[in-house]
Amino acid sequence: MTGSESIVRSLPAELLRAARLTLVVAVVTGLIYPFLITGVAQVVFHNQANGSLITKNGQLIGSRLIGQNFTDPKYFFGRPSATANVSDGTKSDPYNAQNSAGSNLAPSNKALIDRVSKAVDQIRKENNLPADSLVPVDLVTTDFSGFDPDISEAGALTQVNHVAAARNLDPARVRALVEKDVQGRVLGVFGEPHVNVLLLNMALDAGEAA
Question: Which of 165, 184, 176, 185 is nearest to 203 (CA)?
Fold first, then answer.
């Protein structure tokens, strides 16, 4: 028997072996492993695995992972969002979780400089801040995702005056609420102290600063 004839005769067995191996790999990596990891996640990290959703009286309010576009002065607001409408990419749609994006504008871009300058002036005016006061950078610049749910501690404290005035509350109590809601660095090392805007605004609505 020649070598070519031997290869031809063994081909069906080799194909069957390959098919079996493919089936085993598909079952292990495509079914068993995903189900195992999903099960572990649901048991150990149930809230995170389901989107870190926030509910109130059985009604879905949002997610602690996705910011919302608060515009009412009685609420703290998050950092600016550069996301656009899905169907019309030229139309601004802040905090659109379907269309993650940053502005991609260079620091020297005039449009960015003008927008940031305008935002700085507006924040100073809303919070009765001196004309030369510093404004936290996260309140006037967008993030890379477009729906950052958090702001810095300084960013939240900067807004205390306008929130307190809009709600007729003692600024000291609003400031205390902010400081209570500050979350530290992850594992004490990663990131910076921050405040989740949605959770802070829910605490305000619940009367925790009254």
Answer: 176
Are the C-beta atoms of residues 81 and 142 closer than 8 Å to each other? yes
Neighbours of 11 (CB within 10 A): 10
Nearest to 65 by CA among 145, 133, 164: 145
Query: Tokens 């048991």 correspond to what residue?
Result: 43
The whole-angstrom separation of Cα 90 and Cα 99 is 12
Is-contact 91 79, C-beta < 8 A? no
Task: List the alpha helices (DSSP H) in 45-109.
Answer: 46-49
| CA separation for the pair 144, 140 (Å, rounded) | 13
Q: Helix axis angle, 160-167 relative to 171-180, nearest 10°?
A: 120
Q: Is 198 exposed, middle or buried (0-12, 13-18, 19+ CB in 10 A)?
A: buried
If you write DSSP's letter for every residue of 87-105 in order, what string do you get? S-TTSB-TT-TTS------
Q: What is the pLDDT of residues 125-145, one digit of tens each?
A: 988 899 889 999 999 998 888
> What residues contact residue 103 under an 8 Å CB cut-off, 6+ apart?
82, 112, 142
For the beta carbon of residue 69, count every other beta carbon within 10 angstroms: 14
pTM of the model: 0.77
Comparing 147 with 164, which gets the higher pLDDT?
164
14 or 117: which leads in pLDDT: 117
Beta bridge mates, 151: 195
